[in-house]
Structures are given as C-alpha cells and as structure tokens.
Amino acid sequence: MPKIEIETFVHAPIQTCFDLSRSIDVHMQSTSQTKEKAIAGVTSGLIGLNEIVTWEAIHFGVKMRLTSKITEFNFPSYFVDEMVKGPFKRIRHEHHFIEDKNGTKVIDSFDYTSPLGILGKIADQLFLREYMKKFLLIRNQYIKELAEQK
C-alpha cells in the first residue's frame, strides 16, 4: 500500500488553490500527457461533495477508465476523492490546503493499493509508485503556475 505525500507552496490565496485543484477543466489541462478527459458525471467546472467523475486516459500505452467520487469536502481547506471503479484495488487522494501569510501550502496525500496482489507490489517497487508521484508533481506544478498568474 504505497502512500505518496507531496507539499507544494503556492503564492496565491487558499480559495484559488482549492478551486483549481477541484476543477475538472484544469485537471484535463494538467494531464495532457496522458490525454486524460472527463467522459461521465461532472465533465466540466468544479466538482463538489458526493459528485462523481469518470476519467479516460492512456497510461503505459493502454486506454483506462477510472471513476472517482468526492467523499469529504470542507471548503476551502480539505477534500478527498476516492476511486469507486477502475484499474486499482483502491485509491484515496486527500487534498489539504493551509493558509499562510505568503500564500497556501498544498498537501497531497495519495494512498493506493495496486491490483494483482504480489505482482502489483512488485510493479509498485519497480515503477508504479514513481510514475504516480511524477504524475502528481506535474499536475501540482501546473496548478501552482496557473494560481500564481491570477
């Protein structure tokens, strides 16, 4: 069960960071490398509590679908999205936002369980954990740059 923790400091207000992080449109822009697009549920705008989105993307040359739901929501400091259907056994992604006098500390806690038992654990160690971390870092950098331009 790998857990990835990422902290990003953004020179922007907490509300801006919170809304950019839950924006379906920004998510699609920030994940262009995997051609990620929202195909069902909330497909544009801001996603909120108990709302669902189904993503389609290409990872490792394979088209995949993943449906996630916002299961916890406390504007503007915290929200959680969890996989309800998809290629993983389990995904829980916590988004924390802490206001600072110079901006906002954005903390991602991405906790997942790979499929395929021992094969999934081997994949985690060989490449999957680093792949997921890089995916999150690219997304956070995009959000940071967008927020700091406002």
Supply database-style keywords.
150 residues, seven-stranded antiparallel beta sheet, Alpha-D-Glucose-1,6-Bisphosphate, Chain A, domain 4, 7 strands, globular, alpha+beta
Helix and strand content put the structural class at alpha+beta
Rg estimate, integer Å? 15 Å
Number of domains: 1
CATH class (first level) name: Alpha Beta
Oligomer: single chain
Architecture (CATH level 2) name: 2-Layer Sandwich
Query: Total strand count, please?
Result: 7
Please trace the helix and strand order, writing H or E for each element.
EHHEEEEEEH
Helix content: 25-40%
Strand order of the largest sheet: 1-7-6-5-4-3-2
CATH topology: Alpha-D-Glucose-1,6-Bisphosphate, Chain A, domain 4
How far apart are the first and last residues' alpha carbons, in Å? 37 Å
Spans of at least 5 consecutive residues whose pLDDT stays below 50 are none
Query: How would you state the average pLDDT, rounded?
Result: 96
- How is the biggest beta sheet arranged? 7 strands, antiparallel
| Helical run tally | 3
Taken from the alpha-carbon principal axes, the silhouette is: globular
Strand content: 35-45%
Give the name of the CATH superfamily. START domain
